[in-house]
Structure prediction request, 349 residues.
Amino acid sequence: MSHRILITGASGYLGGSLLARWGSVALPPYDRLYALVRTDEQAQAVKRYSAEPLRFEVNDDAAVREAIVNNKITIVYYLVDALSAKPQASFIKALAEVKETSGIDVHFLHTTGAKIFSSHAGAPTDRPLYDTEEDLYDIQKAQRPPVPLMQEAIDANNAVIERGEALGVRTYIFAPCIVYGKGEGFGNPISIQTVAIIKAGLGARRVYSLDAGRPTWPVCHVIDNSTLYLELLRAILAGKNPGSGKHGYYLASSGSVAWADLYAAIARSLAKRGLVDDPTVEQASDEGLAQMAAALGYPKELVHWALGGECTFTAKHGEQIGWKPQYPPHHILEAADDEVELVLSSLGH
Ligand SMILES: NC(=O)c1ccc[n+]([C@@H]2O[C@H](COP(=O)([O-])OP(=O)(O)OC[C@H]3O[C@@H](n4cnc5c(N)ncnc54)[C@H](OP(=O)(O)O)[C@@H]3O)[C@@H](O)[C@H]2O)c1
Prediction:
């Protein structure tokens, strides 16, 4: 029996882009590709990529078991929610059952985020934090996040690894960062953090910074993000045993940029369109912060979490399995005007 793969989040920015790239790479043979959907339109759309639609509720343990076990699925790519760990536990349990009856190795990939390895989550930021570090699991276990909602996301990463180890399921913690570029899928074409900077800038009619100094954050073009998902899959299908469990962290990033440079590029682009009153970036006043919060629909305390902070998480693991990003980190600055155009048109601005 060869592998049967399920991808989730296919109508989303990352999952849709992944599915759209599927046919562009030569993967080792596998049996079937399934995609989790929630509507008839999504079911039709995934068929265009030769994926068989499956419809079930991820929060229903019995429904997850039925879908995975009945379809003999052996690889699950989870791209739905970085925060909670409940559905992931159901998938891992069901995969273990498939392994027991089929004897084939089973794999679960959890999509987390670089934020869970940042200052907001209490990760070290005084040095590069490599995704290949021997004790990254212990580092995550010891993190005490200054932003309380990050605890659940840290726990989700740890729980995935622990459950996988306990049940003999190989797990991977895949970390996207600031992803940019037009989504290639049939659903959501825009990302998260660039969108937040633009929305906050529109709301305050000025791009403000909330950090002192020049903290940095890893960045990645959406195509490179998709190709890392696929390179990992290629290694799994080829039986190469890519690092998993406590050694299965993969940051999708070609390098980092300073938020200040990203803000400046976006501010220039918004100013060119007359959408902010000043093309320069300045430190947010309390009033500016309140305007940003209103534009984002967040409490003021979460604005910095959404579009600032320090993350020294650094990618090495992808290159070790043969992944080569096409876009250098500074490309996000050169592409900022296109990103603004894309986000404005997607938001109907
Ligand atoms: N984009 C980034 O820059 C970035 C960076 C770091 C981490 N991440 C994380 O990566 C994950 C995917 O991000 P994204 O940008 O692709 O998000 P997105 O565009 O909002 O897509 C989310 C996907 O998950 C699906 N989904 C949500 N709840 C579901 C449920 N209960 N059952 C089944 N499907 C459900 C959505 O389906 P519907 O279309 O039916 O709603 C959609 O396909 C998220 O956890 C995000 O936090 C993203």
Summary: The radius of gyration is 20 Å. The longest strand covers residues 170-175. The first helix runs from residue 13 to 21. The mean pLDDT is 97.
